[in-house]
């Protein structure tokens, strides 16, 4: 077996029952026993290297077998299994190497094309700028923010911010979140992130200029969790702050939004199908709270969030949708990143990409992180390493291209529609007011506390030790393989001098029964317990079963009292908040050299960094600190002296300065609409005022107004030109609207109940009992009209009474919809609205077509255009897409034109392309990658059974248009029923989630499945068809549709 000789050699060694071999390099245990065993070496060094639990069990069974022949047979079988694993690992490593090489080539090609589009020569500044202070296309802060180094500086800054009254929304969805007695370590979802977001919300709530902070999370009312997680609202009381003089709704709050299974606590990997439901619930809360704050501090005008901040991928996805629905800035913190995790697991060589995705839904997570890059104004990281080594793995962030864009911004040169988020390093903060570092001597009684009785957790730990006076090595982490606790125990067990000088304390979350723990955590804990037994560490290692969050400070104090050391040996640590906590109590540190601890050590200079894979390095560093009292004292002093640089006020000051530098955005009509239509009045004057406030543009063209695209804001530097163009368009629109208003008034005075009149049309959404959204992506035009007819027929009585309204939601442009409706015998006035061009345009019917240059009886919602134009690439994006289409056509020259620009179907915010053969062009995920690599942010949709490609703004979609209608007109999303086919366009998944009802017409649009054949992740990862607000109908018979509506509670009888 060429290439597998090592297997044969090990097999021979195992089967050889000859005398033991002396080996100077063998492990301590083997040296102590005076002989080397090939079998033992094979199992310890080879099998454990693969970290396969089942192999270890096989070894245990083999070792327990009395018959030599049976034992040897079992060991031989294990050898073959190891060989198969090695072959699989090599295969996966080869595939990953190919992926990395391909990604590098794609990025270099994209960077070259982007640079070619941006024709200006690069300045020296573009080549030499530091990566850390990455700027966005908005207001550029002059230089780096200085740190707060004194009380005077903080007070001066506070005076400057006092007049501001920010409303900030934070989102953290998974895990169990509450303000007090956090159950950190209860499971893998309730860890450091939970503590971080709670303390961030609490700290921001006490800052000058901040009026209210809402931390949105999931409401959990499951029997296996505490009842407090089911409380809708929890106020976060500040630790030290004067709350006098604050308003009624001011402060920081945890707001729990119900979504997902009502009585079940589920892991974050299973939350994806329920994200839209959270977004709708959060949208309702934010809208209501904005109005409440408007009454208190906004002079009657809603006070919208100054930023929506998502934490982790699931919350980032939610924050992106909320940011788009509300048109407010988004901030994102990844905490840990999916691409980095994927690469780390692939390097282990045990699972393929597909197998990893089944377990972790990793591809959905990565897409959420890419979307967060598309939408975020600011991405907050804890360390520079996170930017340079983790974020650069993403299609949507390229440090080199970012530097080029930043240099162009500084020079006032157009970026041709390209955008990058601003990456900002802001280390997490910490509360230090309650911390009093221990100054006692090691000879003091560790069982006694100078300030009173010793905390109970001290006795719980001390009971493990035969000599509790020795310095304590403290590790505080979940029993997770990536935390590398097993290597720490092994290093401690095999270093006799370290064992003689110190004790080891392992705080590994809470447990009742190991058998009830998750498989991974249980296997790590069992491995640790076996090593304690193997090295006979009884009396030297503590591993208590329980501790409360409130006990953690006492644990740090105990370790400091014994002149101990804190260690974080993780393979990679995104930040390392526990290192800062330990330093605040006077504990020197030993930490991994991979990730955030490098930056922390640079600031604090209070310990040593080690290679987490090097067991000897870990043991040497620990031994050095506990044995050298002068070094220990110097590290302790350095940590205490510099720890204020990680305080929460410092963090929040930098945070708020960054948020304030974002270009302010809010619902567009807010700036001109001093009397928002919230009254629900039926008077014609209310309707007319709404039309005026919309600045509705009636200038439509059957051919599409292609030239409007060139007037789109390409980047933030084109602001003046964009404003001039927008003013020109709105002025023309208002002129046309005034003519329409006269006609509308006449119609209203003569026919108050005439359905064709637009007098009462615009505010009608909130007056309807239900709104039916027909979003069926039918394979054939004839079918499409018939489906509309059957749905209308199913609710004819209710429709005639005006209790049900209809919205048409389609990938077609308005110029394509009108002849289709006319041919089918429908009038535009039969519908309340039209969501067109895959959600990039929103129209309402009008009875005044004679005032429109094109003669079409529609008015366009210009506010919706403004609402969704964020980061729209305009002409720069169009050129890139045209170049891509040309390259596809050139490659398939003999096939003719595979992709061609559809000028008649294009609009200012939708670039349409005709597709001849879907099989000959890349799937939508490849197109997304192409645009993201070139820093172009957009939403790509294959539609009409793969014969058309629509490219629209990144925050526009058919689902988002419904949320806009809720924000603008008060349309109750829970009263909306969306009709879809069994499959649909590539934006199909966005239509299915949320609080609205969904009726799926089985057998309709089944051919569209081919559009979803090559996805990043399967639809099943994001759609759960067994939700209670789903109903399925075979075909589209009106009786069956009515029956399904009855099951959903829409119709009675």
Automatic annotation (TrEMBL):
It holds the Pfam family Glycos_transf_1. Residues 466-639 form the Glycosyl transferase family domain. Residues 96-136, 666-688, 742-761 are annotated as: Disordered. InterPro entries: Glyco_trans_1, HAD_sf, SPP-like_dom, SPS, SPS_C, SPS_pln, Sucrose_synth_GT-B1. Pathway: Glycan biosynthesis; sucrose biosynthesis; sucrose from D-fructose 6-phosphate and UDP-alpha-D-glucose: step 1/2. Keywords: Glycosyltransferase, Transferase. The keyword Glycosyltransferase applies. Residues 667-686 have a biased composition (Polar residues). CDD domains: GT4_sucrose_synthase, HAD_SPS. SUPFAM superfamilies: UDP-Glycosyltransferase/glycogen phosphorylase. Residues 96-115 have a biased composition (Basic and acidic residues). It is an enzyme of class 2 (transferase). The keyword Glycosyltransferase applies. Its EC number is 2.4.1.14. Signal peptide: none annotated. It catalyses: beta-D-fructose 6-phosphate + UDP-alpha-D-glucose = sucrose 6(F)-phosphate + UDP + H(+). Residues 166-431 form the Sucrose synthase first GT-B domain. Residues 784-989 form the Sucrose phosphatase-like domain. Plays a role in photosynthetic sucrose synthesis by catalyzing the rate-limiting step of sucrose biosynthesis from UDP-glucose and fructose- 6-phosphate. Involved in the regulation of carbon partitioning in the leaves of plants. May regulate the synthesis of sucrose and therefore play a major role as a limiting factor in the export of photoassimilates out of the leaf. Plays a role for sucrose availability that is essential for plant growth and fiber elongation. Belongs to the glycosyltransferase 1 family. Homodimer or homotetramer. NCBIfam families: sucrsPsyn_pln (TIGR02468). This is Sucrose-phosphate synthase.
């Amino acid at each position: 077996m060429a290439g597998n000789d090592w297997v044969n050699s090990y097999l021979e060694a195992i089967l050889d029952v000859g005398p033991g071999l002396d080996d100077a390099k063998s492990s301590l245990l083997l040296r102590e026993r005076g002989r080397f065993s090939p079998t033992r070496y094979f199992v310890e060094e080879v099998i454990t290297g693969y970290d396969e639990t089942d192999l270890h069990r096989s070894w245990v069974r083999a070792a327990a077998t009395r018959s030599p022949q049976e034992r040897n047979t079992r060991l031989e079988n294990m050898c073959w299994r190891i060989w198969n694993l090695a072959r699989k690992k090599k295969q996966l490593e080869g595939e990953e190497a190919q992926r990395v090489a391909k990604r590098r080539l794609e990025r270099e090609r994209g960077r070259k094309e982007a640079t070619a589009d941006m024709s200006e020569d690069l300045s020296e500044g573009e080549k030499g700028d530091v990566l850390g202070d990455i700027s966005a296309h908005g207001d550029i802060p002059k230089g780096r923010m200085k740190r707060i180094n004194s009380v005077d500086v903080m007070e001066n800054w506070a005076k400057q911010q006092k007049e501001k009254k920010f409303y900030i929304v934070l989102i953290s969805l998974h895990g169990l979140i509450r303000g007090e007695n956090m159950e950190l370590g209860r499971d893998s979802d309730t860890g450091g992130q939970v503590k971080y977001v709670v303390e961030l919300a609490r700290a921001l709530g006490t800052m000058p200029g901040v009026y209210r902070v809402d931390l949105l999370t999931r409401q959990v009312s499951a029997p296996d969790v505490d009842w407090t997680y089911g409380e809708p609202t929890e106020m976060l009381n500040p630790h030290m702050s004067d709350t006098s003089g604050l308003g009624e709704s001011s402060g920081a709050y945890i707001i729990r939004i119900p979504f997902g299974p009502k009585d079940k606590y589920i892991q974050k990997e299973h939350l994806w199908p329920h994200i839209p439901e959270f977004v709708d619930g959060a949208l309702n809360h934010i809208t209501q709270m904005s109005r409440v704050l408007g009454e208190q501090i906004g002079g009657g005008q809603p006070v919208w969030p100054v930023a929506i901040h998502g934490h982790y991928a699931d919350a980032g996805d939610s924050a992106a949708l909320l940011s788009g629905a509300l048109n407010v800035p988004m901030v994102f913190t990844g905490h840990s990143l999916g691409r980095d995790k994927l690469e780390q697991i692939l390097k282990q060589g045990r699972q393929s990409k597909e197998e990893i995705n089944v377990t972790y839904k990793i591809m959905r997570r990565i897409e959420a992180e890419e979307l967060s890059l598309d939408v975020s104004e600011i991405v907050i990281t804890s360390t520079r390493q996170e930017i340079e080594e983790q974020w650069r793995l993403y299609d949507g962030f390229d440090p080199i291209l970012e530097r080029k864009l930043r240099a162009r911004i500084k020079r006032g040169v157009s970026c041709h529609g390209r955008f990058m988020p601003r990456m900002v390093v802001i280390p997490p903060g910490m509360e230090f007011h309650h911390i009093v570092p221990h100054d006692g001597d090691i000879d003091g009684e560790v069982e006694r506390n100078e300030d009173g009785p010793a905390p109970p957790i001290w006795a719980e730990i001390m009971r493990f030790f035969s000599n509790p006076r020795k310095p304590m090595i403290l590790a505080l982490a979940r029993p997770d393989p990536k935390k590398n606790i097993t290597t720490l125990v092994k290093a401690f067990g095999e270093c006799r001098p370290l064992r003689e000088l110190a004790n080891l304390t392992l705080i590994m979350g809470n447990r009742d029964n190991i058998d009830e723990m998750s498989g991974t955590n249980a296997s790590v804990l069992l491995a640790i317990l076996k090593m304690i037994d193997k090295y006979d560490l009884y009396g030297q290692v503590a591993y208590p079963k329980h501790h409360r969050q409130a006990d953690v400070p006492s644990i740090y104090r105990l370790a400091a009292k014994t002149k101990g050391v804190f260690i974080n040996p993780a393979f990679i640590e995104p930040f390392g908040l526990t290192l800062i906590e330990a330093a605040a109590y006077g504990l020197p540190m030993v930490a991994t050299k991979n990730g955030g601890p490098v930056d922390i050590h640079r600031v604090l200079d209070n310990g040593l960094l080690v290679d987490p894979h090097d067991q000897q390095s870990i043991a040497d560093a620990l031994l050095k600190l506990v044995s050298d009292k002068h070094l220990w004292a110097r590290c302790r002093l350095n940590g205490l002296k510099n720890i204020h640089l990680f305080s929460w006020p410092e963090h929040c000051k930098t945070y708020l300065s960054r948020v304030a530098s974002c270009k302010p955005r809010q619902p567009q009509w807010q700036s001109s609409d001093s009397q928002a239509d919230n009254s629900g009045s039926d008077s014609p004057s209310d309707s007319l005022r709404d039309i005026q406030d919309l600045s509705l543009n009636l200038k439509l063209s059957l051919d599409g107004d292609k030239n409007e695209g060139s007037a789109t804001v390409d980047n933030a530097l084109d602001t003046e030109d964009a404003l001039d163009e927008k003013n020109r368009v709105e002025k023309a629109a208002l002129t046309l609207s005034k003519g329409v208003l006269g006609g509308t008034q006449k119609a209203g005075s003569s026919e108050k109940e005439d359905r064709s009149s637009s007098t009462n049309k615009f505010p009608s959404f909130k007056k309807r009992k239900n709104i039916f959204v027909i979003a069926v992506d039918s394979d054939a035009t004839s079918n499409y009209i018939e489906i509309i007819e059957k749905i209308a027929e199913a609710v004819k009585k209710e429709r005639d009474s005006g209790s049900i309204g209809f919205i048409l939601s389609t990938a077609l442009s308005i110029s394509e919809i009108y002849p289709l409706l006319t041919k089918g015998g429908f009038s535009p006035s039969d519908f309340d609205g039209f969501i067109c061009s895959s959600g990039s345009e929103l129209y309402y019917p009008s009875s005044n077509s004679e005032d429109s240059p094109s003669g079409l009886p529609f008015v366009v919602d210009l506010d919706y255009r403004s609402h969704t134009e964020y980061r729209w690439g305009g002409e720069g994006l169009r050129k890139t897409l045209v170049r891509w289409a040309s390259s596809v056509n050139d490659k398939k020259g003999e096939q003719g034109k595979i992709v061609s620009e559809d000028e008649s179907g294009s609009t200012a915010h939708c670039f349409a392309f005709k597709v001849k053969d879907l099989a000959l062009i890349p799937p939508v995920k490849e197109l997304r990658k192409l645009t993201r690599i070139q820093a172009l942010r957009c939403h790509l949709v294959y539609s009409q059974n793969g014969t058309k490609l629509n490219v629209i703004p990144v925050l526009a979609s058919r689902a988002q248009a419904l949320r806009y209608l809720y924000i603008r007109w008060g349309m109750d999303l829970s009263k909306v029923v969306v009709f879809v086919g069994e499959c649909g366009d590539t934006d199909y998944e966005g239509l299915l989630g949320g609080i609205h009802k969904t009726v799926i017409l089985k057998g309709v649009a089944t051919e569209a499945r081919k559009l979803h054949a090559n996805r990043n992740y399967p639809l099943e990862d994001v759609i759960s068809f067994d939700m209670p607000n789903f109903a399925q109908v075979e075909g589209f018979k009106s009786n069956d549709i009515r029956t399904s509506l009855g099951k959903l509670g829409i119709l009675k009888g």
